[in-house]
Write a structure and sequence with these properties.
The protein contains 17 helices and two strands. With 421 residues, the chain is mostly helical. Strands 1-2 form a two-stranded antiparallel sheet. α3 (61-86) packs across α10 (241-263), α5 (116-140) packs antiparallel against α6 and α15 (349-359) runs parallel beside α17 (395-420). The radius of gyration is 23 Å and the shape is globular. The two termini are 28 Å apart.
Length: 421
């Protein structure tokens, strides 16, 4: 039988005891982690399906770039929504807040000729104020978040119409458009890119984008190896070695493949770096900090968290302030992407954000969910939208299919919990 060596530390002394622990088989490990890995397998399967039925259009360089640009604001808001839902709440107003912030940016820049940087600062502060206003009633007055944010959805939808006077406002200057439509310039000499392009038999190659993918994939593997070594040193039974190698190989290959595709088009989009940095920050905050553990404790059992000394009201308040700031950032990206602000901007996007988080493994009861799961869920929804659009499927069928996918994810989550219970 395949076995793993474990280490038991005896408190109050320096004695260590080595024990043999049976290593989990791949089947046993997958069954106990079916929710998180099932999502990754589903994303791979959906991408493979649309790649086949669209005759390779899905993973063409231009479409990969568009896929990232089109889903950037969903991913940004999903990071904040994950924190809100894990804390045991929900925010139905994010789409309307996003549209309102885009309208505010348009009025400041186009109508009042304000600086782009001043406008960005004002919009982010306004997002924080909006989040604080909603969070105050939810945290300190105990009004259900569903009611407060539903009211906020209607209020900010009306404010957008009032601010824009029912008309679209634009276009924006180039300095603002690069927030969503800009690309990181290649820092390597043109000769290096040309030589590598000939090697890969492509017309052009952005060396920085390709190098970014290789470094990112290597860093991910290194972090995984360090975590695995740390787990073994504490006697924690980790995933089977063969599964660990296969999983990291697939993820690393996917990262390199995507960045290679980007390198053959226009390189790294600015919003990709923004999404990447925010994802790393929020993943670290939720998994490796005290405030992150307290958010999970709050969502798992609010009364127990309060009795243990956690300031639950302040934590809930900060979760909504954070959501307001990220909704404002998404509003700036969305407006820059469209190069105009419209009264209907953000309509129904809050439902896409919430669906992405639930599909990514979050629980409606709170206390469960990961940042990476929310990001994967957002891109799964994005691939569905993009693939169905390429196939020419009507918006009516698209909405029905997305609804069924969301329902299937929730049913799967409930089934898993009942099975484990």
């Amino acid at each position: 039988m395949n076995r793993e060596e474990g280490v038991t530390l005896v408190q109050g002394g320096d004695i260590t005891e080595k024990t043999d622990r049976p290593a989990k088989s791949i089947g046993d490990y997958l069954s106990s982690h079916l929710r998180e890995y099932g999502l990754l397998f589903a994303l791979i399967a959906i991408m493979a399906f649309f790649q086949i039925v669209t005759d390779g259009t899905l993973l063409r360089a231009v479409n990969v770039t568009n896929l990232l640009l089109q889903n950037s604001y969903i991913v940004i808001m999903a990071l904040g929504m994950l924190v809100v839902i894990v804390s045991g709440n929900i925010d139905l107003s994010v789409g309307s807040v996003m549209g309102f912030i885009g309208a505010l940016a348009a009025v400041l820049i186009v109508n009042y000729d304000q600086s782009v940087y001043v406008t960005i600062a004002v919009c982010l502060v306004m997002g924080a104020i909006i989040g604080a206003a909603q969070g105050y009633w939810i945290a300190y007055w105990k009004i259900p978040s569903f009611i407060v944010t539903l009211a906020g959805m209607l209020v900010f939808r009306g404010l957008s119409l009032w601010l824009l006077e029912g008309q679209s406002v634009g276009p924006f200057p180039k300095e603002f458009q690069i927030i969503a439509n800009g690309f990181v310039p290649d820092i390597f000499p043109a000769g290096v890119g040309a030589a590598l392009a000939g090697l890969f038999d492509v017309r052009r190659l952005n060396v920085l984008a390709l190098g970014f993918g290789i470094v990112g994939a290597a860093s991910l593997v290194w972090i995984g190896l360090r975590q695995r070594a740390r787990n073994r040193s504490y006697g924690i039974v980790d995933e089977p070695r063969s599964f660990f190698i296969a999983r990291n190989a697939i993820v690393a290959a996917a990262i390199i493949f995507i960045t290679y595709k980007l390198s053959t088009f226009r390189g790294l989009p600015n919003v990709l770096l923004t999404m990447g940095v925010l994802t790393v920050i929020y993943a670290f905050l939720t998994q490796n900090t005290v405030i992150g553990r307290r958010v999970y404790a709050l969502g798992g059992n609010a009364k127990a968290a309060k009795l243990s000394g956690i300031k639950t009201e302040r934590l809930t308040f900060l979760a909504f302030v954070n959501m307001g700031i990220l909704a404002a950032a998404a509003g700036l990206v969305f407006a820059a992407r469209l190069n105009t602000a419209t009264p209907k901007a953000g309509f129904a996007l809050d439902l896409d954000v919430i669906a992405a988080v639930f599909i990514g493994g979050a629980s409606m009861a709170g206390g469960v969910g990961t940042i990476i799961g929310a990001v994967v869920g957002a891109f799964l929804m994005g691939v569905l939208n993009n693939g169905m659009s390429i196939m020419g499927i009507g918006i009516d069928y698209q909405q029905m299919i997305k609804g069924l996918v969301l329902l299937a994810a929730v049913i799967f989550d409930v089934y898993n919990k009942n099975k484990q219970g």
